[in-house]
Amino acid sequence: MSDKTAQKIILSADSTCDLDEELKARYNVNYFPLHIILNEKQYKDNVDITPEEIYQEYYDHKILPKTAAVNVQEYIDHFRPWVEDGYEIIHINLGHALSSVYQNCCLAAEELGHVHVVDSCNLSTGTGLLVVAAGKMIEQGLDAAEIADALRKRTSKCHASFILDTLTFLHAGGRCSAVAALGANMLKLKPCIQVDNRDGSMGVGKKYRGSLDKVLVKYVKDELAKYSDINTDLLFITHSGIPQEYIDLVRKTVEETMKFKEIHVTKASCTISCHCGPNTLGILFETK
C-alpha cells in the first residue's frame, strides 16, 4: 500500500474471542457481546453476567442459560457509525457451526457495505488468534479486504482444544448423554474436546484418566507434540475459572516444552464457559 493513503480500519470481534484486556487494548479491538438468557432475563456476555454466576445458578437451581446470537439489526447498529465516519471494518465471528452470528453479520455487511466479515471457524481464543493477526496486519498498513482474505486462509492453522474436568455441564446443556457423563465422572475420565477448524464444531478427542494436574501436563505435551510447525509467536492458556495452581502448572509445562514469544492467560466468556463448566482449560495456538 505504499502509493495509497492508508485506510481507516476498525477491528471488531464477537466477545467470544476471549482476549485479555492487554491484547484488546494493544490492537484496539471493539467487542460485540453475545446474549445470555437466564431465568427469562437477558444479559450481555461478560458485561453484566459472569461464568461464576452461571455456575452458581446451576448448583442452586439446576438451571443453565440459553445463549442467543447477535441479530442482523444489532450488527447494523454496531457498524453504522463507523461506516458513516468513513471506516472500513473487519469483524471476526464465532465459528458458523456454533451460532448464526456469522450469517447475521454477513447480512448486516451486505446492507451497509465497507464491512469485511471473517468466519473464524473456531471459538474462544482460537478466534482470538485471528483477531491478534488482524491487529498486526492493520499496523503493517494492509487494506481491509487484503487482511480479511489473509485471515480466511489462516483459519485452518488455528488449533483449539481443551480438557473438561466434568461432563456435568455438557450433559445439562444436552450435548452429552447422562450415561456418558456418569461413566466419565465415575472413571475419573477427562475428555479432550477438539475444535474442528473447518467450522468451529466440537468433537471428543483423547480421553485422559487421572487427577486434573496429571491430565493437564499430559494434554499439553500431547498437543504441542502433534505439530512440527508450530508458530511460536503466541500461545493462549484459556480457562473457564480454575485455581491458579493449575494455570501455573500448564504455563510451566508449556515453557519447558517449547519457547513462545508471548503466552497469554485468558478467561473464557459465559457463552463458552456455560457449556463446559468450571475447571476447563485449553491451550490454543497456530501452525505455520
Automatic annotation (TrEMBL):
It holds the Pfam family DegV. InterPro entries: DegV (IPR003797), DegV_C (IPR043168), DegV_domain_contain (IPR050270). Keywords: Lipid-binding. One of its GO terms (molecular function) is lipid binding. PANTHER family: DEGV DOMAIN-CONTAINING PROTEIN DR_1986-RELATED, FATTY ACID-BINDING PROTEIN TM_1468. This is DegV family protein. The lineage of its organism: Bacteria, Bacillati, Bacillota, Clostridia, Lachnospirales.
